[in-house]
Amino acid sequence: xAGKAVTLLERILRSxxxxxxxxxxxxxxxxxxxxxxxxxxxQAAGRGGEGDxxxxxxxxxxxxxxxxxxxxxxxxxxxxxxxxxVDAFMQAREDMRWNLMxxxxxxxxxxxxxxxxxxxxxxxxxxxxDHEHLTHIHIQFAMADKDFDxxxxxxxxxxxxxxR
Length: 164
Ligand SMILES: [Zn+2]
Fold this sequence. Notes:
Helix content: 25-40%
Bound molecules: zinc ion
Radius of gyration: 16 Å
Low-confidence stretches: none
Distance between the termini: 34 Å
Largest sheet: 6 strands, antiparallel
């Protein structure tokens, strides 16, 4: 179950975030009908193992494509929105207390220091797309802060600041 930090972040983004986040996006193909099944752009549950930050309720994935499917090479028109969110999270970092953010071949640690995140040579297909986070922003909280939920005003201020 998601902690209070993730639950609050999801609620703020759903109500005050960019309109794109309220549109559905592709989730997966239905096992029987093979039709595309659509899902939410805000996903707290992860597909990783038990110790995964999502499965301990302290991470949120925000689906905002940085690259165009299905090749994931060309820049997506959604990427501008992705970077505006990354920027708002950076500005609100100390108020929010997140400790890791990943998007489009880059990651930021608990001090906001960025480093490049590129898959090992030879990694291809969805393994590369997943590792490099070309489809979503991953943002997570430390175990000690997973129920910290006093950042609403700070984050909303940055989300709605037209001058940043
Ligand atoms: Zn994630």
